[in-house]
Amino acid sequence: MEKIYFFSPTKIYFERNGIDKYLPLIKNYGKKVLIVSGKNFVYKTGLIEKIKGIMEKEKIEYSIFSNVNPEPDIENVEKGVEFCIKERCDVILAIGGGSAMDVGKCIAAMVKNPGNLRNYFGEAHFENEVLPIIAIPTTCGTGSEVTRYAVIVDKRENTKKTMSSEKIMPVLAIMDPNILDYLPSQLIAATGMDAFSHSAESYLAINSDFISQIFSIESLKLLKENLKKAVDGDKESKENVFLASTFAGYSINKTGTIIVHGIGYSLTIKYGIHHGTANAVFLPYVLEFLKRNNYKNEIEEMEKIIGPIYELKNFISSIGLPTKLREMGVKEKDIEELVDLSIKGCERAMKRMKFTLKREDFLELIKSTF
């Protein structure tokens, strides 16, 4: 058998009402909690008040940094680090989608380590231990509650950069499906397709192994069967999509992603398009391209799980997401710039592939998606 590597330090509780039951465990990891979140969802849904109520009942000290941007950048992280040091917090509670968890991970690392965040992009090596991280995901796509990655916008480079280290994997994740009852259907669709992309890309990565493929295959099965019903409001299907996103997180934790994510970054950087929606629009076109170029056998195996690739566009349309760039307001005159951004975004991803795409390949992909 091929060599296998699997590591996960994250204790997971997946249960309705799990926040009430398991959040008190946070007192085992530190004396004062920094709650890291965005500005909207956790307040509009009353989730932050619920968290504060549990903290106060359990006599757990906390401070709140709720200034995480939807697409957080280095400066956003730096403000969080300054606040964490000022408030003398020693454990991070990240509540939200990938943005909040990514910022929480970066704060946990940078509070205890010298230098600028830019010094830690790529495979990060820390002089000192990072603060313990507890994650409460509020979307069903990122998988960040179990991954070694934090993705942050570098405005100077005009792209997204990734910090990667097993040391920033959360020690505890509370997966409470009740949260999804408040998530708009469009976000269930977009974040669900982010998980779909994670699983498909992981399956095709050259460093995938037996265990990572177990997770990616099971995630794809759950998403194909449940995502449409979850978008339509079925509670059990939402739970299955939530679980699928965590499975996808386990798979990319071993492999990383390939070019769907890297190309998708171009839409987020240029147009501010949601990360999951950007991945969804490119996914079928990338898979079609790869089937024609060196990945015929792998794609045919994947089609046994998700059905024919040509039907994937109909699936994506059925959950209310676009399948053409022009539907998203992308301008034809910007295609060359999107190609440049895609090449930059895929720099690390292409190391996980059988071949390196040329500029004309990216141009073909983006034109076909337009």
Descriptors:
single chain, 370 residues, alpha/beta, Rossmann fold, Dehydroquinate synthase-like, alpha domain, 2 domains, six-stranded parallel β-sheet, 14 helices, 49% helix, globular
Please, could you describe this protein's structure?
The chain is of the alpha/beta class and 370 residues long. It folds into two domains: 11-179, Rossmann fold (3-Layer(aba) Sandwich); 184-369, Dehydroquinate synthase-like - alpha domain (Dehydroquinate synthase-like, alpha domain, Up-down Bundle), CATH 1.20.1090. 49% of the residues lie in helices and 13% in strands. It is built from 14 helices and nine strands. It has helices spanning 18-22, 41-44, 47-57, 74-87, 98-110, 185-204, 210-231, 235-255, 259-271, 275-292, 296-306, 312-318, 335-345, 359-369, and strands at residues 11-14, 32-38, 61-68, 91-96, 122-123, 133-137, 149-154, 159-164, 172-175. The chain has a six-stranded parallel β-sheet with strand order 1-9-6-4-2-3, sandwiched between helices. Strands 5-8-7 form a three-stranded mixed β-sheet. A hairpin with a 4-residue loop joins strand 7 (149-154) and strand 8. The protein is globular and about 60 Å long. The termini are far apart.
